[in-house]
Amino acid sequence: xxxxxxxxxxxxxxxxxxxxxxxxxxxxxxxxxxxxxxxxxxxxxxxxxxxxxxxxxxxxxxxxxxxxxxxxxxxxxxxxxxxxxxxxxxxxxxxxxxxxxxxxxxxxxxxxxxxxxxxxxxxxxxxxxxxxxxxxxxxxxxxxxxxxxxxxxxxxxxxxxxxxxxxxxxxxxxxxxxxxxxxxxxxxxxxxxxxxxxxxxxxxxxxxxxxxxxxxxxxxxxxxxxxxxxxxxxxxxxxxxxxxxxxxxxxxxxxxxxxxxxxxxxxxxxxxxxxxxxxxxxxxxxxxxxxxxxxxxxxxxxxxxxxxxxxxxxxxxxxxxxxxxxxxxxxxxxxxxxxxxxxxxxxxxxxxxxxxxxxxxxxxxxxxxxxxxxxxxxxxxxxxxxxxxxxxxxxxxxxxxxxxxxxxxxxxxxxx
Length: 416
What we know:
Layout: H1 11-14, H2 25-40, H3 49-67, E1 74-80, H4 95-101, H5 110-114, E2 116-122, H6 145-153, E3 155-156, E4 162-163, H7 164-167, E5 181-185, H8 191-194, E6 201-205, H9 212-217, E7 227-231, E8 242-246, H10 254-259, E9 266-271, H11 273-277, E10 289-291, H12 297-306, E11 307-312, H13 323-331, E12 334-337, H14 357-369, H15 371-412
Parallel strand pairs: 1-2, 1-5, 5-6, 6-7, 7-8, 9-10, 9-11, 11-12
Antiparallel strand pairs: 3-4
Helix pairs in contact: 2-3, 2-15, 3-15
């Protein structure tokens, strides 16, 4: 069963309109985001002092705006029992516990370290408009229906031997007014429920871009929801119902917060999972240990937290969302790889572009000798990640929540 929801904050904390600064948020954030878009669109020489100064100026402008977001903001991150990604501990609010329970990916852990967030697994059986996950079945690169049945019934040690199906709860059993913003993977909360809670900002994220839901949502928002989350890295405010909101919502220092220890990197090169799995044997780079993913997601996070570098290049026949790269940067590793392989090319400015192991060996040797250069480049990619995978997308949802509640208040007073 799901644990009790986080304590309900005061009325002023619940209502963004109660704070007069709220009315300024959209204007301030949109100005900052235009600057962000200009920077993120460029993959030039970020070591130039002028470029770094612009980036720092942007971050300085954006962070105080987001400092106005109450720490009591309450998110619910929701999936169905058939979802083969993310966490298994339904009702959990603690990021470290969620990380330890994850089947795959680390996901939006930043929502749990910075806000009053809760993770829920919903039983969608017998509810057609909450079972859109079935659009994945049989699609190119996706699994047959039997796979998802096994996912629901697989037993997990984090659940004391129970399955996701065992701990899933019906959507109608939850008091959704306990939350300000709901993020539903594959829109697993039916419209009959979401429309009953108009004060909540209802968001949904299709788990796979080849789902018909993903393409259709660019034209029109799903009934019962306010915002379609694209999985894309954030770079600018979205239009109408569309918000670029990535799968991984994290910031540099997140794993310090979760693991309870400060970063202490070692000369380790961590290989991106696709790269590591493509090699019969791990290569040798003088002076550095080479490692790759193994064990649980918590084990992966600890290994990344120790690593000084993250390597990502090769030929995979597709472009990567870059989730593993974001996790590495947030854990403290410096990414070295191919920008053309990623949907977000800004992670790899020219100084960090690497396409082979000989080139990787030369770059690591140079950076190990020039710690000032390492620190400068690390600062830049951390700032970019903070904006595109935490401050930007979270700030946009906060603004959309404020706009929705202010609009509702205006209509309620007859001023619309």
